[in-house]
Amino acid sequence: MKKVHLPQKICLVCKKPYSWRKKWEKNWENVKYCSEKCSRNKKKQA
Protein backbone atom coordinates (compact mmCIF):
# COMPACT_ATOMS: atom_id res chain seq x y z
CA MET A 1 0.00 0.00 0.00
CA LYS A 2 1.34 3.43 -0.90
CA LYS A 3 1.78 6.03 1.82
CA VAL A 4 -0.74 8.40 0.22
CA HIS A 5 -3.46 5.78 0.86
CA LEU A 6 -2.70 5.24 4.55
CA PRO A 7 -4.99 6.72 7.20
CA GLN A 8 -3.77 9.87 8.93
CA LYS A 9 -4.35 11.64 12.23
CA ILE A 10 -3.27 14.99 13.71
CA CYS A 11 -0.91 14.90 16.69
CA LEU A 12 -2.47 16.46 19.80
CA VAL A 13 0.81 18.13 20.82
CA CYS A 14 2.56 19.38 17.67
CA LYS A 15 -0.59 19.58 15.48
CA LYS A 16 1.18 17.91 12.54
CA PRO A 17 -0.33 15.05 10.53
CA TYR A 18 1.10 11.56 10.87
CA SER A 19 0.34 8.36 9.01
CA TRP A 20 -0.53 4.86 10.09
CA ARG A 21 2.42 2.61 10.93
CA LYS A 22 2.66 -1.15 11.05
CA LYS A 23 3.61 -1.07 14.75
CA TRP A 24 0.28 0.70 15.48
CA GLU A 25 -1.77 -1.86 13.54
CA LYS A 26 -3.59 -3.33 16.57
CA ASN A 27 -3.80 -0.06 18.51
CA TRP A 28 -4.50 2.61 15.85
CA GLU A 29 -7.72 3.79 17.52
CA ASN A 30 -5.80 4.70 20.70
CA VAL A 31 -2.78 6.37 19.07
CA LYS A 32 -2.85 10.12 19.81
CA TYR A 33 0.75 11.28 19.34
CA CYS A 34 3.12 11.14 16.36
CA SER A 35 6.20 10.23 18.39
CA GLU A 36 7.58 9.35 21.80
CA LYS A 37 8.79 12.95 22.12
CA CYS A 38 5.25 14.30 21.72
CA SER A 39 3.92 11.63 24.05
CA ARG A 40 6.34 12.77 26.77
CA ASN A 41 5.47 16.45 26.16
CA LYS A 42 1.70 15.98 26.30
CA LYS A 43 1.51 18.13 29.44
CA LYS A 44 2.77 21.12 27.45
CA GLN A 45 -0.16 21.12 25.00
CA ALA A 46 -2.30 24.23 25.18
From TrEMBL:
A Pfam family recorded for this sequence: DUF2256
Protein name: DUF2256 domain-containing protein
Protein source organism: Polaribacter gangjinensis
